[in-house]
Each structure stands twice: as C-alpha cells, then as structure tokens.
Amino acid sequence: MIQDLRGILHYVPQFRGKIFVVTFDGAAVADPNFANLLLDVAVLHNLGIRVVIVHGAGQQIRKLAEKRKAALSNDDGSGPTDAATMEIAIDAVGRITTSVMQGLTAVGLRSAQLNALIAHRAGF
Questions:
Q1: Residues 6+ apart with CB under 8 A from 106
Q2: CB neighbour class for 44 (10 Å; exposed up to 12, middle 13-18, buried from 19)
Q3: CB-side neighbour CA atoms (13 Å) of 50
Q4: Residue of 59, 75, 69 whose CA lies nearest to 27
Q5: What separation in angstroms does the CA of 14 have from each of 8, 11, 23, 70, 86?
Q6: pLDDT tens profile 71-101
Q7: Spatial contact of 59 and 25, defined as CB atoms under 8 Å apart
C-alpha cells in the first residue's frame, strides 16, 4: 500500500489542476463496489485534480423497461428513439444521477448535474 502511494506521488504535480473525465456504464452504479469508485474520485479531488463523471444507463433502462413491460425502440443508444423509450431513459438516468450525487455527498464531495455540453474540435 505505501509503495503504491509513493508511486503516484510522482504523477500528482503533473496532473494537479487538470480535468479528468471518468466514465462508467450503468452496471458500475449497481455494483456493490461502487462506493469505492467514488472514494477514488474523492482521492483525485483531494490531490487537486478536477473530475467530471459521465455515466451510462443501459442496464437500468433495460430493467426499467422490463418492469414496465415496455418494448424499447433502441436499447443501446445508437438509433432512433421513440417517445416511450425516451421517457424510460430519462427516468433511469435521473435515478442514476441521483444515486451518483448521493454517493459523492457521502464521501464529502459537492456535485452538480448538467444537461448541456459544449464541445470544440481539437487536433483534427
């Protein structure tokens, strides 16, 4: 453990003040080990690294559709989505986001939810 900590100290100054984008699928939120993932995010934050979390919801969307006995027009996010599927997806994503934000609060971090993204083309 101590050796691992000493190993990362070399990298901390290089990434302090930078933004890390951490992505995980919806299955990670349902995993019993999810709290440890959020603890890792808290460690990054405490080292001065800013973190943006982007989560998926595929597993939860499929489960919610099954519970509601609804057929999904698109369950992998790659095609057209009908209104019923969109409603299920919005419900599932809202639940996951709430769970993530509660988990972040539990490890002492503040969080905000965004519904907008501005992307700039770089390097192409």
A1: 35, 38
A2: middle
A3: 6
A4: 59
A5: 11, 5, 21, 49, 41
A6: 898 777 777 888 999 899 999 999 999 999 9
A7: yes
CA distance 28 to 24: 6
106 DSSP 8-state letter = H
Query: Cα dihedral angle (97, 93, 114, 80), rounded to 10 degrees?
Result: 160
> Tell me, what DSSP letter sits at residue 73?
S
SS3 70: coil
- Token pair belonging to 108: 């002492």
Residue in 85, 20, 82 with CA at minimum distance from that of residue 58: 85
Mean pLDDT over 89-116 rounds to: 90
